[in-house]
Amino acid sequence: MLLFRGPHWDRGLTPDQLQQAMDKVMAWFEGLNEGGKIKSAQPLGAQGRIISGTNGRFVLDGPFAESKEAVGGYLVLHAANLNEAVEIARSMPTLSYGVSVEVRPILAECPIFQQHPDLVQRARERAVQAEQLWVAAAA
Amino acid sequence: MSTTSTAKSDYLLLFRGNVWDRGLSPAQLQKVVSDWMAWFERLKAEGKCVGGHPLEDEGKVISGKQRAVADGPFAESKEAIGGYFYLQVADENEAIEIAKQCPGLEYGAAVEVRPVADECSIKQRAQEYSPGQLAEATA
Lengths: 139, 139
Hints:
The complex is a heterodimer of chains A (139) and B (139). Chain A is α+β, with helices and mostly antiparallel strands and 139 residues long. Chain B is α+β, with helices and mostly antiparallel strands and 139 residues long. In chain B, 33% of the residues lie in helices and 27% in strands. In chain B, a hairpin with a 4-residue loop joins strand 3 and strand 4. Chain B starts with 8 loop residues before the first strand and ends with a helix. Classes of the chains: A alpha+beta (139), B alpha+beta (139). The interface between A and B is large, with 73 and 74 residues.
């Protein structure tokens, strides 16, 4: 998964520069897409919320708008390994304008869960029971 | 960069914090693992969560014109993104209510709720500069 950080890379560019950058981004994306490398990709809206605290009692407007760390979108790649994903990330045109790209392997299972396989096994049995109840309730 | 739109709205939940399990007793950990899996299975059965994955702690960050590759600062961070759910729900309020149910919240995890955009906001801004040109370039 590529996470694009710094959603305001267009600030300070002239219309011509922005046009060129957009053309490069679209060509980059289409090239990956035609190569079958893209599983899914979406930009994210600038607005949002951060939920924290027990039972989610703190709901804050996200500090997304002005942050260089803010995630502006993501792209899930079909890549053979981390190296290929990193090479694809390095070919991303907007790096030149200050965007950074975080490259993260997607896991089948949570690393916290992996450390406790016995707990997960028990939880999975309960989850299957719970799902059956929910499916039965929905039917 | 997809332009698909549906009657329901798409939201991404980004789970932040990847060390919140430290210091939990086995019983607490059992409960949170069990609750988390039941939560995910229920949301899937209800059709509200259409995908979700944990992310590996290891990763890379690429930035700058030189395309410098650094090891990601993910291992010990409260801000690090540990995984995500892709929701299809009625509106932002429903996404926030679901986020508030996250079992990790009482242990210090935070959930970022972000609308999935149909179109990149920079592309929208670029179109304000030069609608004709950009439509041609991206057609």
